[in-house]
Amino acid sequence: MTSTTRRSFIAKTSLGLAALGLSKFTMAGEISADVNYPVAISTWRHGLPANEAAWEILSKGGYALDAVEAGVRVAEADPEVITVGYGGIPDASGKVTLDACIMDEKGNAGSVAFLRCIKHPVSVARLVMEKTPHVMLSGKGAQKFALENGFKKEKLLTREMRKRWRKWKKEEREFSTKINIENQLEENHDTISMLAIDKEGRLCGACTTSGMAFKLHGRVGDSPIIGAGLFVDGEVGGAAATGSGELVMKTLGSFLVVEFMRNGMSPKEACNAAIQRITEKIPDYQEHQIGYIAISKTGEIGAASLQPGFDYAVKTPEVSELREADAWFKKL
Prior knowledge:
Layout: H1 3-18, E1 39-43, H2 47-58, H3 64-77, E2 98-103, E3 109-115, H4 121-131, E4 136-138, H5 139-148, H6 159-170, E5 192-197, E6 203-209, E7 230-233, E8 237-243, H7 245-251, H8 253-262, H9 267-281, E9 290-296, E10 301-305, E11 311-315, E12 320-324, E13 326-327
Parallel strand pairs: 3-4, 10-13
Antiparallel strand pairs: 1-5, 1-11, 2-3, 2-6, 5-6, 7-8, 8-9, 9-10, 11-12
């Protein structure tokens, strides 16, 4: 990437800071503040069917928390979405381990990490939020809690994923990150994160993943970490992440996006600023992809990414489409 491209990205973010409170125009990738509720936004192409499931609830006046849970459950149950739930790519030991979280407009949150044999970790996370005094359960404890609450053990490793894992092991390959794994034919898709505002203005979010392909056994990413993979403040807005979770955790990315919005930035400006923070703080950021989505209390949406290729799904009463976010590294 040229220095000119980087300067133009920084200039756009800086201009947004200078114009806080003064400009009301809509930037590319955003919906203006006068949009009608409800609104749903989610990561990647598999966000399109997820948004449709959420819309079944939102369009009938339902609760945004129910909507985001229903939405991401679609990806969790789809074996074609191979980094979420059933059919997810296994870790280095051949085990499918899942992370998820959910958060409501009041700041209540629940999450699970390193969960095995349970197809819908987001629903377990919701029960952690609603039935326990805790925020996170992990590993065998999370599985035991799920089973005690009516979930059933299920085989999550599909024949196709077992075949890919065996090939990976045979080739004695080491774990490595993938940029835009969701757009690569051999290993497509990534974490699904969703944010929604219902007709009553209640803002909620959810995030669920099986994590990086062939990760070290026991690795947990940003997806179940409140403030990293997801953060919601019902009086300000919400944000969620996808990509290399380690970079998001090191900068507490979703919380950072919401704080930027609290201080006056639009959702897109806030996502851009959080991406810029990564480039300032993480030495090897060029080797990774990070994507952020955000939605303000007023219904504005925005997104930004580190590398080109991050797309996100948008659903409003007027719009239902897939968009590509602006990237720090521009396409040549």
